[in-house]
Amino acid sequence: MPESIQHLPTEAPPTHEAAAAERTVAQRRRLRVAQGILLLFHVTGFLGLGFSEDPSFYLQFVPLNLLLTVGLLLAFQTERSPTFWWFCLVTMAVGFFVEVVGIRTGLLFGFYQYGPTLGTKWLGVPLMIGVNWLMLVYTTGVLARYLPIPDFLRAVVATLLMVGLDACLEPVAVRYDFWQWRFDVIPLQNFKGWFAVSLILQVFFNRTSFEKRNALAPFVFMLQLLFFFGLSLIR
Predict the structure, then answer these.
(1) How far apart are CA 224 and CA 41, in angstroms?
(2) C-alpha to C-alpha distances, 11 to 2, 8, 14, 15, 25, nearest whole angstrom
(3) 148 in helix, strand or coil?
(4) Which residues contact 214 (CB under 8 A, 6 or more apart)?
(5) For residue range 17-59, what is the model confidence (pLDDT) as tens digits?
(6) Which pTM value belongs to this model?
(7) Can you list the alpha helix ranges (DSSP code H) found in the chain?
(8) Exposed e or buried b per residue across 30-44, where buried means at least 16 C-beta atoms within 10 angstroms of its C-beta
(9) How many C-beta neighbours within 10 Å does residue 215 have?
């Protein structure tokens, strides 16, 4: 065999550190793509709802936007164990049925009814409401995990984040017929009820054993906050 062939250089196998670096780069790339998709949808929705003469075209995509956001959010959950899916199902079910009780009794949040914007209803409540509760509980719960404090205090912080977001959301929701309040007045009871239910679900979040890290969660929360706060300032 010729000398030159015998001593051809061979490619060294990638080291553990190199492989880890490649995974990190790939994860960052995925994160940027997901952030770009969400930003595109929310900016389009913001401009359409805020500045279009007829926002009804954009309102029909509200359920799709919510599903897309939650789908991408769950895709970045680091570990999707059966316990995690149990948390998701319970949170959606609790969120949905407290709204059923809410619209039928007025005891939890005050007297209100849902409009057509959030899509298909069952028992007078849009099915997307359970998905929305999951998104908010999960996102704020993950954010609160960054704080070096006991779990109950984390639950309180996450609950306050939820109530704060709801305060930004309410004027927009009423304007675009997500729901309507009796006498067109958002009662203080709504925020008290939100705090109580959210705190229970946040405690459940902290006590359910699954990996609570998600690189997309901070971006989703800030995007939602800016989206609804920005719309509340228009018109």
Answers:
(1) 11
(2) 20, 10, 9, 12, 22
(3) coil
(4) 73, 76, 77, 78, 138, 139, 142
(5) 776 677 778 888 999 999 999 999 999 999 999 898 888 899 9
(6) 0.89
(7) 3-6, 16-51, 56-59, 62-75, 82-105, 128-144, 151-175, 188-207, 217-232
(8) eeeebbeebeebbee
(9) 16
Distance, in Å, from the CA atom of 212 to the CA atom of 57, rounded to the nearest integer, reads: 37
Concatenated DSSP letters of 154-220: HHHHHHHHHHHHHHHHHHHHHHTTSEEEGGG---HHHHHHHHHHHHHHHHHHHHS-S---BTTHHHH
Name the nearest CA neighbour of 126 among 115, 137, 112, 138.
Answer: 115
Determine how β-strand 121-122 pairs with β-strand 112-114.
unpaired
* CA atoms of 131 and 111, how far apart (whole Å): 22
Q: Which two tokens stand for residue 79?
A: 């570990």
